[in-house]
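FORM 7B - TANDEM STRUCTURE REPORT

SECTION 1: FIRST PROTEIN
SEQUENCE AND TOKENS:
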Amino acid sequence: MDELDDDFIFDDESAEIVRRYEQSVHDRNVPYFDVDEVEVIADYYLSCGKTKESFNVIDLGLKLHPNNTSLQTKRAKVYLESGDIRKAYQILERNALPNDADSLLLKGDALVRLHRSKEATLVFERLLSLPGVEIESTSLDIAYIYIANNEFSDALHYLKIGLEKDPENEDLLQEAAFCHEQLLQYDQSIEMYQRIIAVDPYSSEAWYDLGLIYFNLAMFEKAVDAFDFVTVIDEEDTGGWLQKGNSLFHLNRFSEALVCYHRCQSLIDFEDLLLVFMGQCHEKLEEFDQAASYYAKALEINDQNIEGWIGLGICELETEQYDAAYQHLQKVLELDPENAEAWVYIAESCINRNDSAQAIEAYQHALKLDAYQPETWQSLGNLFLEKNQYDKALESYLEAYNQDVDYSLENIDLLLAVAYCKTGDMTMAKTFLEKALATNSESTVMFLEICPDAEALLGLNG
């Protein structure tokens, strides 16, 4: 028999019922099953994703037990699972008992999927008001329906109803955290995870999910702390070690990240990706030979790994193996012709191979794919300046300058002063030279080395 979903409890008695049914089908006999047995068989096939077989069983059941309400409800459930929402709703309208919890839940589910939200709300209110209904579990069941339809605000409404009854219910808190996260309400999501942890400090799942939120918010120190708890609770938790390593990487704590990556190396399925992460750590530590070794190992496992080819190319650029770098970066373009990063590094390899024309083409291609690259614009401007194409150099430097919102580009003011000077705009040249002097007192000397004729024009004393 097929593997079952976790929701279906398949005990020995249920197994015997299903075997008896399948034997009767094989022998082409007309068997007898009571209503409960029919539901067991239908649920089994439904849990296996075999809706056709589930329909067949229910058809048999209705022949044996005509107009049985319970079987009609089960039939509606199968229609819901198969995507025939209207037919499911029609069955429930005709046959469902007015105070039957299962029928009301299915009816509400159908109404949500039919986008009849007001009617769905009325059905769920009626369901929650039934005598003896368990508010916590029923609220969670309703929330699941809304979550499945990406209606997270409505799901939260019912989760809050459940939490009013049981504020420490971990299932309710977990789903509430998820819904808040989907709605980009990160503070509330963090609060939900913290409430779970207050109830169960050893919930590695809550610590892990909390760490992911901190990571996605670039709060890497807090992410490290959360993943620390994951790995303390379970030293074999691969995901915890991996995400802790990723968080440490973003904190530039590359040696510590490597330790984490090594801890999960033998446990992880996607080893080529992990090897790339390890290569990137060695690359950041300027241990280029070790980095290249890890990238090469990753590519032995998966030669389609783009980050592996890029990393290998970077290491070869750093170790002045420019021809090899060019060849390996070309591999990236075979896999992804629109990879802007690869085009930038190809340009750098071309510069070092004394092919400035191809370098310019590569930089321009990279900028067509991704125009927001201040460093690339500056590098392109440098090439145009070297080729005495001053108008193009000025245009490139201005793009770099306008994109440099965090003032990270080195000597951009000085380069603009040079470009303006070379294009004959001495007023702007002087303006940018003064800006350059504010950060580097040697700017005038550097400027006059490139523009020796500008001293008199700008009234400089050298």
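SECTION 2: SECOND PROTEIN
SEQUENCE AND TOKENS:
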Amino acid sequence: MLKDLVLKCRSYRRFYEDYNVDCETLKELVDLARLSSSAGNKQPLRYILSCTEEKNAKIFDNVAWAAYLTDWPGPSEGERPSAYIVMLADKDVPSLHYNWDAGIASEAIMLGAVEIGLGGCIIASVKKPELAKVLNIPEKYEIVFVLAIGKPKEEIVLEKIPENRDIKYWRDDKHVHHVPKRSLEEIILDL
């Protein structure tokens, strides 16, 4: 059921790094994005796949993890993603709405990952000029997101928004990741 996939589709930030995610699996995930809706059917997105230690290290060095966890520098060695998908917008494809496509495509990829027992994190905190340089990305492409993919190594629990209305996620002393979510009643307006 789709709701079950959505409930499992969290922003995982720690992985079993030794679990191999091959490029063929990444291609299958990108194919889900390719088949998804595109504003005006412009299809402006392109992808770089990474499933080698060398390329993964270059990407890892140019992304930031979990802004709300200010004392956590990101996954330690052994808990890093085993693969990445770098999502690009092709500037030669006239599209005012590539960010809409990026959201749709990212969710399709992440739901596909969950369906096959993987998980990931959509990362927008990217050192774009540095990453473009180390990956030799031509100027005609703009980095949109980096999607970290791997076998999740953490538990994520959805919580009700507390009385203080704080929406920041947090980790407890057992490293369980807690994510406050607004109630359905709060987000549906009765106007």
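SECTION 3: OBSERVATIONS ON SECOND PROTEIN
The domain at 2-154 is CATH 3.40.109.10 (NADH Oxidase).
The beta strands are 45-50, 83-90, 119-123, 141-150, 156-160, 170-171, 177-181.

SECTION 4: SIGNATURE
Preparer initials: ____
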